């Protein structure tokens, strides 16, 4: 497994495993504490694992947490997703930068997203399972959502949206979210 910095988002990393494939399928290590530690992250900081299943066209996000934020490792364990990260850390050299990734069950790439970055994704296959490893317990009172179609972000979602949560549909634009976070 190797770790590569994401140039568009300071402190973000892609962890690329080496799947071993044969006639049975494949095997690969999806988390390695030593590799995580090698880029300055604490592998013991992650306290919750979650998984979501989405169907083609489903869009989830853009989400982040207020307060101390939430760092996470994201991996598509089955299918394919179009994954988006937006840096909203005002003290970051990559503030307001966006980065796009295709994560898939085939590659098993894992994306590390630092606290203070918004995250969202769209399922590209009939079924897409997305796994999350987060660094603090989820508190719904700290949930922040940004409009997926905010023209300021101009995210090139690859498919028409087939479904999303009511919360995501009603999300405010980035300018309003930033204004609320400053107050």
From TrEMBL:
The keyword Isomerase applies. InterPro entries: RmlC-like (IPR000888), RmlC-like_jellyroll (IPR014710), RmlC_Cupin_sf (IPR011051). Keywords: Isomerase. It comes from Streptomyces noursei (Streptomyces albulus). Signal peptide: none annotated. Pfam families: dTDP_sugar_isom. Transmembrane segments: none annotated. GO terms for molecular function: dTDP-4-dehydrorhamnose 3,5-epimerase activity. Belongs to the dTDP-4-dehydrorhamnose 3,5-epimerase family. Gene3D superfamilies: Jelly Rolls (2.60.120.10). The active site is at residues 63, 132. GO terms for biological process: dTDP-rhamnose biosynthetic process; polysaccharide biosynthetic process. This is dTDP-4-dehydrorhamnose 3,5-epimerase. GO terms for cellular component: cytosol. PANTHER family: DTDP-6-DEOXY-D-GLUCOSE-3,5 EPIMERASE (PTHR21047), THYMIDINE DIPHOSPHO-4-KETO-RHAMNOSE 3,5-EPIMERASE (PTHR21047:SF2).
